[in-house]
Each structure stands twice: as C-alpha cells, then as structure tokens.
Design goal:
There is one protein chain. The chain is mainly alpha-helical. The protein has a single domain, classed as Serine Threonine Protein Phosphatase 5, Tetratricopeptide repeat (Alpha Horseshoe), CATH 1.25.40.340. The chain is 67% helix and 2% strand. The protein has a two-stranded antiparallel ribbon.
C-alpha cells in the first residue's frame, strides 16, 4: 500500500505533536552547546504549520511539503529554519503533483532532502549536526529498499539508523554552527539537530507502520 496524501498529512501532524512533547528536551540539549532555543523554535515552526493544515487537505503532496518548508523558513529561528525548510522544499520538488508515494519515491525524497541540507549547511557527517542523523537514515533506507524490504520495515530501519547517528554525535567535537564555538567543550553532548531529525523520522515510521 502506498503512502497517500492523507498519510503525509498525518505524518506532519505527528511531527508537530512529537516536537511539542520534546520541546523542553531539545531545549536542554541546545542549552549545553547552543542558544537554548532549538526546542522552542521547532515547536513554534510546526505550530505554524498546523495553522496551515486546513488549507492543505485537498492539495497534492508536493504542495504540502512546499508549504511546510516555506512556513518553517519564515517561523523557525536559528539554523533550524533554513535547514528544515530546505529539507521540506526539496521534498516538495521531488513530489510535485503526486497524490501518493512508493518506497522508491520516499528514497528519492530523503536523498534529495539530505543533499539540500548538506548544501545549505555546508556540513558533512562527523560535524555534529542534523546531517549525522540524516545520513545513516538515508543510507539505511536505500539499502533496505535494494534488499526488497517492505515500506514498514525500511522506515523502521531508517529511523533506527537515525537514532544511532544521533547518539553517535555525543562524543564528537562540533565543527559547524553555534556549538563549534565551544571547541572541545562541545564533546559529551548529544546534538539537538540530529535529535529532532530522529524524532521526525521516527514519527514517519510510527505513523506509517503497517503500510507495505
């Protein structure tokens, strides 16, 4: 069963819910190595997205993703707005006019989203950013698809890889963003951007569980 437009909308709602629930946690992570605003920023951005949802119920998936991206860029402060905005804008370009998505489509979406984030943030794996969560997630997703996994299984493996990538940021010394100003003192703290990336991908796996 493909991912329908309504499934996509349900995922966006789930993202807003999980980011609201983890607002304080993300802020605590960011307080250690950043500006202590990542949780607040992401929650505010997705609350703004929620206000647009009534207008999106009849739109195609590309329009939905584009709207999410533009909303996040305009409402999320710090680096999160441009980076997550780019992620969803890239997703929107890959899905223009589509009303449903296959596992192959999702692989292409996530690869384009990651490439957009890398280009925008000039970050690479090991820099202690959201790229450390997204890169293994995309690699695991593509590998699962190549191995003939179901959509459900591929999403689960992708989310698990994001979790591992997130946890692997803890010992790293930040080389990008506000955290890089701390130098060696940034080690020992989990990256908030990699954490929010994991939460968003886990929301997809949870929301779309059972789709094959």
């Amino acid at each position: 069963m493909p991912i329908s437009r309504d499934d996509v909308l349900e995922w966006i709602r789930a993202c807003a819910k999980v980011l609201a629930e983890n607002r304080d946690y993300l802020t605590q992570l960011d307080a250690a190595i950043g500006d202590a605003d990542h949780g607040e920023n992401m929650d505010r951005g997705f609350k703004a997205v929620m206000s647009k949802m009534p207008d999106l119920s009849e739109k195609d998936i590309g329009t939905i993703f584009k709207t999410v991206g533009m909303t996040l860029i305009s409402t999320v402060g710090g680096a999160g707005g441009p980076l997550y905005g780019t992620l969803f804008l890239q997703a929107g370009m890959k899905t223009a006019g589509k009303m449903e998505l296959s596992l192959s489509d999702w692989c292409g979406i996530m690869e384009a989203a990651l490439n957009g984030v890398v280009t925008r943030g000039k970050a690479e794996p090991g820099d202690k950013t959201m790229v450390d969560g997204l890169t293994p997630a995309v690699n695991a997703l593509k590998q699962a698809a190549e191995n003939g996994a179901s959509l459900d299984e591929a999403l689960r493996l992708s989310a698990e890889a994001a979790r591992q990538g997130m946890e692997a940021t803890t010992p790293l010394v930040a080389r990008k963003g506000r955290a890089s100003y701390l130098g060696e003192r940034s080690a020992g703290h989990q990256d908030p951007g990699a954490t929010s990336s994991y939460l968003i991908l886990k929301a997809a796996a949870d929301t779309w569980a059972g789709l094959n």
